[in-house]
Amino acid sequence: MTKIEFRDVYFRYNEDENWVLRNINLSINADESIAIIGHNGSGKSTIAKLINGLLIPQAGDILIDGEKITERNLWEVRRKVGMVFQNPENQFVGTTVMDDVAFGLENRGIPRDEMVHRIDESLREVGMQDFFLHEAHHLSGGQKQRVAIASVMAVQPEVLILDEATSMLDPLGRREIIQTIQHVRQQHGFTILTITHDLDEISSSDRLLVLQNGKLVIDTKPRDWFAQTEDWESLGLIAPFTTKLANILKDHGYRFPSHPLNHEELIEAIWTYNLKE
Amino acid sequence: MKSWLVIGQYVPGNSILHRLDPRTKLLLIFSYVIIVFFANNPASYAVLTFFAIGAIFLSKLSISYILKGITPIWFFIIFSFLIHLFFTRDGEVLWQFQQITIYYGGLIQGLTISLRFLLLIMVTSLLTLTTSPMEITDALENLLAPLQKWKVPVHELALMLSISLRFIPTLMDELDKISKAQASRGVDLKTGSLKSRIYAVVPLLVPLFISAFRRAEDLAMAMEARGYRGGEGRTKLRQLKYTMLDYQAAIIYLVIIIIFFYLRN
């Protein structure tokens, strides 16, 4: 079932500027997890904001569940599409963790009893149940992002967009967030869009979209893309060691059945290599 | 610098004063502030002082802590005492030395003014010492809610207040970072004349403002993404509830006020 659809979408921030997005056509299924990459200014964050109705395209339509986003159904769209932003500090609205999770629920006029129940549940899901009354400045970046995820989860969205949600975190915080997202996704099964520079996040997605100068240039499986590409730097990525090694081995005539994405897969491929021949 | 920031900073606790509904505290203290100006004889001042000391006792905070907390205010108290002492010409002369004459009326006037000042500061700082900023915001929103009939944006003001309170520590951290960054570039913040030190503040404030604006933009975006569209149709997680304690406090306060008006001339 198609969840999100882009039809010939054009967008620019100002009349006299170049198009940030040009002729984007895209359809995303309800159960997919998608990674979007691209260098700075390629329009990847713009795509996220368009899906949430924070921006409206100048030309073309964006459909959620087959319905075009307009001023009229904007708030319904925002209920369905939850978003976690880059800066953990600047999206923490409430004074305490509890208030922050409540914010989105209060906006939607959820009765208080239901609210208390949902706050409890969503904080439990991200493992922040012991921090109810903590204030924002007493939390680490990773903890704040987990609260941000909980606040989005509490509203029970159908699509979750992570706009470089891990880019300002240290490696530990990043791992925390990736695990948290995988956990909540197993529980609820929503569509997930990750805008990222992080290779772990890319390789754990079902589908990869690459944007370049406002155009969708690649739409493929992460594994296929890892196997082919040599163009890491221009996309603001650093090729992982396993990929580099695998590519060099291929240049030397090794043939792997599928491109190894991580250490384990590469070791597996190498030690079983001669057994098959 | 630090002591300025400590004035009335919330001290978590579980005393009777902490447990009172913030609306009760707000109303009592607001009326107390007005009533202080009606005191006009030693007996009425005694009642007010008794109330203030009683309240401090109930807050379980030590008097010395509260007095230390208002250190910066002492200057104003002493200053206004001296002004009245030297410039009021009333009653008999107590002491004379060259140009300076001190009258009995001046002494009394100085004492009452500084006592008034002290009472006001002590009681109001007691409010902020025992009530978290969030509770005060909630209480204000609740008490001012009737003004919405006249199109006063009470909810928006309360939200603004709570967001600014939430960002104070964030901006303080930011300021600290910026001042270190500027110090490492050679901006001298700690020495030099007053004028040069005031000038040195500019390279701190400009980046702070720029980043605050950027934060505001991000925050507005995040709030919109989470479905915020004003106060209409919004429910609230935080609820205020008057308890037995509040009724008791109100009754005791009323009795004290009646005694007060009975004693004053």
Automatic annotation (TrEMBL), chain A:
Annotated signal peptide: none
Organism: Gracilibacillus oryzae
Matching InterPro entries: AAA+_ATPase, ABC_transporter-like_ATP-bd, ABC_transporter-like_CS, ABC_transpr_CbiO/EcfA_su, ECF_ABC_transporter_ATP-bd, EcfA_1, P-loop_NTPase
Top-level lineage group: Bacteria
Listed GO CC annotations: ATP-binding cassette (ABC) transporter complex
Domain (ABC transporter) ranges: 4-238
Membrane topology (UniProt): Peripheral membrane protein
UniProt xrefs under PANTHER family: ENERGY-COUPLING FACTOR TRANSPORTER ATP-BINDING PROTEIN ECFA1, HEAVY METAL TRANSPORTER
GO molecular function, one term: ATP hydrolysis activity
Family listed: Belongs to the ABC transporter superfamily.
The protein's name: Energy-coupling factor transporter ATPase
Subcellular location: Cell membrane
CDD domains: ABC_cobalt_CbiO_domain1 (cd03225)
NCBIfam families named in the record: ECF_ATPase_1 (TIGR04520), PRK13648.1 (NF010167)
UniProt KW keywords: ATP-binding, Cell membrane, Membrane, Nucleotide-binding, Translocase, Transport
UniProtKB/TrEMBL annotation, chain B:
Keyword Transport in record: yes
Main location: membrane
GO molecular function, a single term: transmembrane transporter activity
InterPro entries: ABC/ECF_trnsptr_transmembrane, EcfT
Compartment(s) where it occurs, according to its Swiss-Prot or TrEMBL record: Cell membrane
Topology of the protein relative to the lipid bilayer: Multi-pass membrane protein
A GO term from the CC aspect: plasma membrane
A Pfam family matched in the record: CbiQ
Keywords associated with the record: Cell membrane, Membrane, Transmembrane, Transmembrane helix, Transport
Transmembrane region(s): 29-58, 65-87, 107-129, 198-216, 244-263
Assembly description: Forms a stable energy-coupling factor (ECF) transporter complex composed of 2 membrane-embedded substrate-binding proteins (S component), 2 ATP-binding proteins (A component) and 2 transmembrane proteins (T component).
Family, per entry: Belongs to the energy-coupling factor EcfT family.
Protein function: Transmembrane (T) component of an energy-coupling factor (ECF) ABC-transporter complex. Unlike classic ABC transporters this ECF transporter provides the energy necessary to transport a number of different substrates.
Name of this chain's protein: Energy-coupling factor transporter transmembrane protein EcfT
